[in-house]
């Protein structure tokens, strides 16, 4: 797919118009075909871009401005409605092209299953890859009601693909007992409930390694992010999540890609969730793209 043909809709604030001279590529994955509760996250990428116009381009946290990073917004990947496997294949092919061009991939979902083909693509380029996963849910099921392609399965899939000892989950507060047992038995790291403090302990162990970060917006408490498909009480604050992004930025790991998923604008008339997601993406760009 030629990137000048991929674009559809608006762009994230201050996006660079030239793919070739960009360091990072933002792209949307508007898919919610496999959700188990409330659909609507396929509208997340568009709305996050739209509200980004209200962002300050300067980060007081990182003392950087968006103009310091050249990032290209490729728009949303055209995905066939209802066809999960074909959609996943198209996402993987799209990210392969981004990586082949030497760019940093920053994806916006969409349901969390869209992260699976992205992580698989990044692993092809970085065989010593580690995953940092922030989420309310373990996402370690083999299937949901008999369906292996489900938004409750991406972390299980990538764990089995690269080895569970290379996957680090934070903020987890929901899942089947069997999911937590599987993680314990297979050497996967899970930090329940909290993100920042356990993350600080893990980051030195990952120093120098390529790391992909996948962030489900429902890691936040519903008070901070009501606009998501599967809300779960007891989450972290937006302040803690921002601090976690900054902790990664100042660490010695090599962030090689990231995504933010599960924003469903229809459930948040205040647009608090989309605006929060937009700010988080700004901090990812300014904190992580330079870490390649």
Instruction: Give the CATH level 1 class.
Output: Alpha Beta
- Radius of gyration using CA atoms only: 17 Å
* Secondary structural class: alpha/beta
- Number of extended strands: 10
What is the count of distinct domains?
1
Distance between the termini: 24 Å
Average of the residue pLDDT scores: 95
In spatial order, strands of the major sheet run 4-1-5-10-9-6-7-8
What's the CATH topology name? Arginase, Chain A
Listing every helix as H and every strand as E from the N terminus to the C terminus, the arrangement reads HEHEEEHEHEHEHEHEHEH
Put simply, the count of helices is: 9
Percent helix, as a range, is 25-40%
Largest sheet: 8 strands, parallel
- CATH architecture title: 3-Layer(aba) Sandwich
- Uncertain runs with pLDDT below 50, 5 residues or more? none
Cofactor: Mn(2+)
InterPro entries: Agmatinase-rel, Ureohydrolase, Ureohydrolase_dom_sf, Ureohydrolase_Mn_BS
Function: Catalyzes the formation of putrescine from agmatine.
EC number: 3.5.3.11
């Amino acid at each position: 797919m030629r990137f000048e043909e991929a674009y559809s809709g608006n762009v994230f604030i201050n996006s660079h118009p030239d793919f070739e001279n960009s360091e990072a590529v933002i792209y949307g994955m508007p898919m919610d075909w496999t959700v188990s509760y409330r659909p609507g996250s396929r509208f997340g990428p568009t709305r996050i871009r739209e509200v980004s116009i209200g962002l300050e381009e300067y980060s007081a946290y990182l003392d950087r401005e968006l103009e310091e990073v050249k990032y290209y917004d490729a728009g949303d990947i055209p995905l066939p409605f209802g066809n999960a496997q074909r959609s996943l294949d198209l996402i993987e092919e799209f990210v392969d092209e981004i990586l082949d061009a030497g760019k940093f991939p920053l994806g916006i979902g969409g349901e969390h299953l869209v992260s699976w083909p992205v992580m698989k693509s990044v692993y092809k380029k970085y065989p010593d890859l580690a995953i940092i996963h922030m989420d309310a849910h373990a996402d370690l099921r083999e299937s949901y009601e008999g369906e292996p392609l489900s938004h409750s399965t991406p972390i299980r899939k990538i764990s089995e693909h690269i080895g569970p000892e290379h996957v680090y989950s934070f903020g987890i507060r929901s899942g089947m007992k069997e999911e937590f047992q599987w993680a314990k038995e297979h050497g996967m790291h899970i930090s329940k409930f909290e993100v920042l403090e356990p993350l600080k302990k893990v980051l030195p162990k990952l120093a120098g390694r390529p790391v992909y970060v996948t962030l489900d917006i429902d890691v936040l408490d519903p008070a901070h992010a009501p606009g998501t498909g599967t809300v779960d009480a007891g989450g972290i604050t937006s302040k803690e999540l921002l601090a976690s992004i900054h902790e990664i930025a100042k660490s010695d790991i090599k962030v090689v890609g990231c995504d933010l998923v599960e924003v469903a604008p229809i459930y948040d008339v205040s647009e608090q969730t989309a605006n929060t997601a937009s700010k988080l993406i700004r901090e990812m760009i300014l904190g992580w793209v330079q870490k390649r």
